[in-house]
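Tutorial, part two.
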Amino acid sequence: MIVRIMGEGQVKLDDAHFTELNKLDDELLDEMESGDEAGFRTTLAALLDAVRRLGTPLPDDSLEPSELILPASDATLDEVREMLSDDGLIPG
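Running the prediction step on this input gives:
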């Protein structure tokens, strides 16, 4: 799956990593619903770090269609809320 982190670029992620990413996504959703700004910041950073660590960066001149778009690391709680689906940021 091709994942875009807004403001950074794209990475290719193997589907096998989505179990780990979904756990972080669930935590992020809980923190957003409770208004836990500090927890939200920590978990968003952990989620994006995991995507960077587990994924393979695509070249900057590559323009593959992104199947998943994640917010930038400095996104606000409200900005991330607007990006959410019923499943959170990551489907599944």
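The chain has a mean pLDDT of 90. In part three we will examine how such features are distributed along the chain.
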